[in-house]
Hints:
Organism: Neptuniibacter pectenicola
Keywords: Membrane, Transmembrane, Transmembrane helix
Strand order of the largest sheet: 1-2-3-4
Order of helices and strands: HHEEEE
Mean pLDDT: 77
Largest sheet: 4 strands, antiparallel
Transmembrane segments: 12-34
Number of strands: 4
Protein name: Prepilin-type N-terminal cleavage/methylation domain-containing protein
Amino acid sequence: xxxxxxxxxxxxxxxxxxxxxxxxxxxxxxxxxxxxxxxxxxxxxxxxxxxxxxxxxxxxxxxxxxxxxxxxxxxxxxxxxxxxxxxxxxxxxxxxxxxxxxxxxxxxxxxxxxxxxxxxxxxxxxxxxxxxxxxxxxxxxxxxxxxxxxxxxxxxxxxxxxxxxxxxxxxxxxxxxx
Length: 178
């Protein structure tokens, strides 16, 4: 005698196929959640890198163009410093940098930016971030002949802590003597 269709159960094959499909779906979901969790802090690292790059550029751009240039940038220095004189002058330290090219070659832990504000060793959430600065004259096709020495390019490279998996980011600005 046949049972009605409503009273029939699942066969063993149907149960095994259902378990396999659910197992594959759960594996994919857990892997996706793991990837999301692994990259959930990326925005925090990127925000800190952006803040540091901007802070360093603002500090550097607030300085005089050149040792021979007055604070307002005018009159144009004659002669301007040469590229060989980039970097700190004589006994200048980070705290006494007074012109843009003093920052050339600066490499420091980013906490150094905050040391003047916080005497207890800086702001620890920025510990592990490395900053390096390069300054050079910009010439070539960008500017008319004879004006190359009036524009310096400042490149600030911010490297997040090694354990973040993030790449270093470069920030660049031009500083003219006008």
